[in-house]
């Protein structure tokens, strides 16, 4: 019996099937890699969000702490700025004010220290330094652009030799703050309405608005590394929800971030909106 080899048709068919299988395997591998990138970036953003909110919440809960017998009146425990940066070396949130990153806000928390000498560790600033009795502690949160062009959440504080600032979370598009105002008279510690810093400052001239802040609503938009979400369409992010954007977006810069208007290098990244509402204890 005469043995036969593959004919041209069989050979071409085998090559076509092999090519299709290779392409399918390559597509599966590419898809799996992209999914891994997205999941890894999302996990890192979740960790960064928890870290940022925990640090800011702790600072807000310390706001206005004063030791028994401290002289009165104590300055307002909380202040802030809308759509502004902060000079790293200047006093508190005094000007000059650098341009804001995507309309980001500034939150400044002030509190008294506790314990003799360098403090007993019960009152610390956002850099982790203990503040002693008779000293005034500050924790100031704002967004600035790092040397690599990435936005980062920074903590500004007053050290022994002057003012300093450290990055605490990288990959931040925007920080937005609303203040829960207790409008009752007498005050009952329950917020009745939420205002931005500009609106609270307008109340301050007539009714000492900053002293009526009963809670702070924090929202952050975080992003992953470059190309962490390849092929993703541009999305709109409403940091306080679409309802607030519809009502106040025109007068409160930064509460809505449209990826289409971001620089090309900032697009196609995994993003997360994280937030918390923290009540002021003191």
UniProtKB/TrEMBL annotation:
GO terms for biological process: type IV pilus assembly. InterPro entries: N_methyl_site (IPR012902), Pilin-like (IPR045584), PilW (IPR032092). NCBIfam families: IV_pilin_GFxxxE (TIGR02532). This is Prepilin-type N-terminal cleavage/methylation domain-containing protein. The lineage of its organism: Bacteria, Pseudomonadati, Pseudomonadota, Betaproteobacteria, Burkholderiales.
């Amino acid at each position: 019996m005469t043995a036969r080899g593959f004919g041209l048709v069989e050979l071409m068919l085998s090559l076509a099937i092999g090519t299709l299988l290779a392409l399918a395997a390559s597509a599966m591998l590419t898809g799996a890699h992209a999914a891994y990138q997205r999941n890894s970036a999302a996990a890192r953003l979740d960790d960064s969000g928890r870290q940022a909110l925990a640090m800011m919440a702790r600072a807000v809960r310390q706001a206005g702490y004063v030791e028994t017998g401290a002289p009165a009146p104590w300055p307002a425990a909380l202040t802030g700025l809308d759509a502004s940066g902060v000079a790293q070396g200047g006093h508190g949130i005094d000007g000059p004010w650098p341009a804001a990153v995507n309309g980001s806000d500034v939150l400044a928390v002030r509190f008294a220290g506790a314990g003799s000498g360098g403090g007993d560790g019960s009152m610390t600033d956002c850099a982790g330094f203990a503040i002693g009795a008779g000293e005034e502690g500050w924790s100031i949160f704002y967004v600035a652009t790092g040397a690599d062009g990435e936005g980062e959440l920074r903590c500004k504080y007053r050290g022994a030799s002057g003012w300093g600032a450290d990055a605490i979370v990288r990959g931040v598009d925007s920080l937005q703050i609303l203040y829960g105002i207790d409008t009752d008279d007498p005050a009952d510690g329950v917020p009745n309405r939420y205002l931005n810093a500009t609106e609270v400052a307008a109340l301050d001239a007539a009714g000492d608005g900053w002293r009526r802040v009963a809670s702070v609503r924090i929202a952050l938009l975080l992003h992953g590394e470059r190309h962490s979400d390849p092929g993703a369409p541009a999305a709109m992010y409403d940091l306080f929800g679409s309802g607030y954007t519809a009502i106040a977006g025109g007068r409160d810069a930064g509460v809505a971030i449209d990826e289409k208007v971001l620089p090309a290098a900032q697009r196609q990244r995994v993003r997360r909106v994280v937030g918390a509402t923290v009540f002021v204890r003191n």
